[in-house]
Design goal:
alpha/beta; two-stranded antiparallel sheet
Length: 160
């Protein structure tokens, strides 16, 4: 059984970093069962960014929604109400997606006891010096966000 995935990227005032995020998402996704929603709260974009986003929307590669939501939560909900996927995956607008991430993410849902999957969060100790992609744990502290007794599946690099 193939699980339909809706990838949702709320954004506000991002330019080339948003393009890079979208490019990495498009390179990693399988459009036969995945869709990408960009919910854009930005009043304007640089002309080249605006043109790139419009072209991707015209090609059907992304669903680009310009809507002044005023909040991250509202932007997520705008996409969720329109999304077709059985699973919604929310992404930040400044990330690069490694190949295979989406397939590894949805693999968890083959287990009917799994209701949600989340990635590990690393918070930078110094936002001006983010860690390299090759070592996301460098110069960070872990945000665990769960009780010690919690046994839900956790995303681990290199595993489903």
């Amino acid at each position: 059984m193939t699980i339909e995935l809706s990838i949702i990227i709320p954004t506000y005032l991002r330019e080339q970093v948003l393009v890079a995020t979208c490019q990495s998402v498009l390179a990693a996704m399988d459009p036969s069962h995945m869709e990408c929603w960009v919910i854009d709260d930005s009043p304007t974009h640089e002309p080249d960014v605006e043109a790139w986003l419009q072209r991707q929307a015209d090609l059907g590669a992304i669903h680009w929604v310009r809507e002044r939501t005023g909040s991250l939560t509202a932007a997520r909900n705008v996409a969720l109400l329109r999304a077709r996927g059985e699973v919604a995956l929310y992404l930040d607008d400044d990330v690069l997606i490694p190949p295979g991430l989406f397939e590894r993410h949805i693999r968890w849902y083959a287990d009917p006891s799994v209701a949600a999957v989340t990635g590990e969060v690393f918070n930078c100790k110094n936002p001006d010096q983010p860690p390299p992609m090759s070592d996301p744990g460098r110069n960070t502290f872990r945000h665990v966000g769960r009780d010690e007794g919690d046994v839900r599946p956790q995303y681990q690099r290199g595993q489903p």
